[in-house]
Specification:
By secondary structure, this protein is α/β, with parallel strands linked by helices. The chain has 21 helices and 32 strands.
């Protein structure tokens, strides 16, 4: 495509935080940059100056110390701000003061905020639980509840380095719990309540939490789903637990008598009752080392026990501050939404929006209930400025509403400035749908990174154009490159996403990995001293950004198909197949066959009583051949009733590949629908060479 699908107006560029930061860097460091591409190159070439600039430009509360980067030539081993000290919760809760200054922010008039002069009484959190529950917390209430919960946790012996686990829906108590935990210097780790007992134990059993926060249940498609029966079963197998705090989904008091009987050796309390009884409390913040543990996040665990990835407070804070303010143009008074659960790193990413003075818009439940456009109802009702979701949601929305229909025809969306998409590659047709059926004047930021870095390698650029099917840019300070198998840098070709220089949000360690061997094997084994992320990507150039800033992601490297020695990204195939009205979704794997690999494509049809006949198989293969190449055409096309996915919505090629080859899938509890794997086992179509 020769022309961008969207360009920011001159006024929008002038007002953007990134424009202000560009000038800040030029003035502070006496350099002439002029545009975002030059700023990106400078940020990677001057690592220490860049991260110092982020600290100061974003007014981080704390002491950065005298050294910015220690052992900067080592990966792993580099340490940022080794003498720095801060408290993560303190930096998030100062958002009320930022919000009160939003009139100084360039877009205050259209931010969607309430316009209240006293920001302490303005919204910090708004919560919708489908159409069943509506709740709000002001900044003042958020701070008060955080202080009370911190006191409760402290009274139960929770202190620096202790783990607090959460088995919670996406309700305000999750944010309160995280802030209270971080204020004490304890470590937060959360899971969504749709995990089964074994899935929870695979995670929390490794980290030995002292306290557990849970809810009485949650709604999904208007059905109430009880959580406490599963809590009783897994909590009984966590001998490290001293206390379990039960939140009411609607913010109410909860009867915990039955759970207390099931857990005789643990104190069980109603969270609301305990916060009431403790009364108003001070909120002291422990100023801790920059790399003090903040979060333990978990890998998907679809091929084995999940890795426990430990992230530091300082690296997480700096990464999120610049991604929010510079890449997403968030500002005080904004109303920020991301459709996520507490088991996906986007929840942690969203929570940090408080540090920029933004109001968090939380949603829990089915994103299409009670109507397909409920999230856009939310956007209009609350003046949403940032709408974050997944590529699969955008695809599904178009299917739900039908051809030619979209929120643009039914909703105002006047305050919406940015949409973000992640989780899987957003196909070019997804870009078309956003601009054609949601809003024409919006910065569509396809972003990608992951749990491993609690942030993005590539993402948005609010002062740059958007090209159809492309991620706008590499993230500032992230020396992203593309390597071939031998470690040579590529341009205009597909290869491995790598990062050649250190950055603050690298994990500080894996839990229970005392010699660091698992950590090194995960990221630094293939290219020593270079972070290997495992995405199959390409850097693309346009005249407007000669630095080659545009990025296309073709899928995960370990799911890349390799027939005849030619590497093929699965996203290329999915794009062509899912354009066909007969196909709802597809998943492709490489099957070992005659000393080579052949492509097998499984399709879920869009109509329940439809069948995969020879005519449709031919149509699918022609679409792939015409849209991709003859090498992309699958040797076999097989119909399945469902496709397995993780709880964050990602399809799992590796688990399907294991089933097809008769190998065990080690951690089915990580899947939202593990029963779907049975559709791939023992398929006769994959045993017959004639097919």
């Amino acid at each position: 495509m020769n022309e961008p699908i969207w360009r920011p107006s001159a006024e929008r560029v002038r007002r953007a935080n990134l424009t202000a930061f560009l000038k800040y860097v030029e003035d502070r460091w006496n350099v002439s940059l002029g545009n975002a591409s030059a700023l990106y190159r400078w940020s990677c070439d001057h690592v220490e100056s860049f991260w110092t600039s982020i600290w100061d430009f974003c007014d981080v509360i704390g002491d950065s110390g005298g050294t910015v980067l220690q052992d900067g030539d080592r990966m792993p081993g580099a340490t940022f701000f080794p003498d720095g000290r801060l408290n993560f919760a303190e930096n998030l809760l100062r958002g009320a003061a930022l919000g009160s200054r939003r009139e100084d922010s360039a877009d205050s008039a259209d931010s969607g905020g309430s316009g209240e002069g006293d920001q302490a009484h303005g919204d910090a959190i708004v919560f919708w639980g489908e159409d069943a529950v509506r709740r709000r917390l002001s900044w003042e209430q958020l701070r008060d509840r955080t202080a009370r919960l911190a006191r409760v946790l402290s009274d139960h012996g929770v202190g620096e380095g202790d783990r607090v686990a959460a088995f919670l829906p996406n309700i305000p108590e999750a944010i309160v719990g995280m802030l209270a935990t971080a204020s004490l210097g304890a470590v937060w780790s959360s899971s969504s309540p749709d995990f089964g007992v074994d899935g929870v134990l695979d995670r929390f059993g490794q980290i030995e939490p002292k306290a557990l926060l849970c809810a009485d249940g949650y709604f999904y498609k208007a059905k109430w789903i009880d959580s406490l029966e599963r809590v009783a079963r897994f909590a009984a197998r966590l001998p490290s637990l001293d206390v379990v705090l039960v939140a009411g989904y609607a913010g109410d008091d909860v009867d915990v008598g039955a759970l207390q009987e099931a857990l005789p050796g643990v104190e069980v309390g109603s969270l609301e009752r305990m916060l009431h009884d403790i009364g108003p409390a001070p909120l002291p913040f422990s100023r801790l080392p920059f790399n003090h543990p903040l979060y333990i996040l978990f890998s998907s665990g679809t091929t084995g026990p999940p890795k426990c990835i430990v992230h530091g407070a300082g690296g997480t804070l700096l990464k999120h501050l610049y991604e929010h303010r510079l890449m997403c143009d968030m500002r005080p008074g904004d109303r920020v939404f991301y459709f996520t659960t507490c088991g996906w790193m986007m929840w942690n990413w969203l929570a940090s929006g408080l540090a920029s003075g933004a109001t968090l818009l939380l949603y829990d439940g089915n994103p299409f209930w009670p109507t397909p456009t409920v999230l856009f109802d939310y956007a209009d009702a609350e003046g949403m400025t940032f709408f974050g979701t997944s590529a699969k949601y955008i695809d599904a929305l178009g299917n739900q509403l039908g051809a030619g229909a979209g929120p643009r025809e039914t909703h105002r969306l006047e305050t919406l400035r940015t949409m973000a998409s992640t989780g899987s590659p957003l196909a070019p047709e997804g870009f078309d749908y956003v601009y054609g059926h949601i809003k024409s004047d919006v910065c569509l930021s396809s972003i990608a990174g992951g749990t491993d870095i609690v942030g993005c390698f590539v993402g948005g650029n609010p002062i740059g154009p958007v090209w159809r099917g492309e991620i706008q840019s590499r993230s500032l300070g992230m020396a992203v490159d593309v390597f071939d198998d031998e470690g040579a840098s590529l341009r205009g070709e597909k290869g491995e996403l790598v990062c050649t220089r250190p950055f603050p949000s690298m994990p500080i360690e894996f839990w229970n990995d005392p010699d660091g061997s698992r950590y090194r094997a995960a990221y630094f084994e293939r290219y020593p001293g270079i972070w290997h992320h495992g995405d199959f990507i390409e850097l693309v150039s346009h005249e407007e950004h000669a630095a080659g800033a545009g990025v296309i992601i073709y899928g995960r490297s370990d799911a890349t198909l390799n027939p005849g020695g030619v590497r093929i990204g699965t996203a290329e195939i999915y794009r062509q197949v899912e354009l066909l009205p007969e196909v709802e979704e597809a998943i492709a794997i490489g099957q070992e066959w005659d000393d080579d690999v052949r492509i097998v494509l499984f399709v879920k049809l869009a109509v329940a009583d439809a069948s995969l006949d020879d005519a449709l198989v031919g149509k699918i293969k022609r679409a792939i051949r015409d849209g991709c190449s003859p090498r992309h055409v699958p040797a076999v096309v097989v119909e399945v009733a469902d496709i397995p996915r993780t709880k964050s919505g990602k399809i799992v090629e590796l688990a399907v590949r294991e089933v097809v080859h008769g190998r065990p899938v080690k951690n089915r509890e990580a899947l939202a629908n593990p029963e779907a794997l049975e559709y791939f086992a023992g398929r006769h179509e994959l045993q017959n060479a004639a097919l």
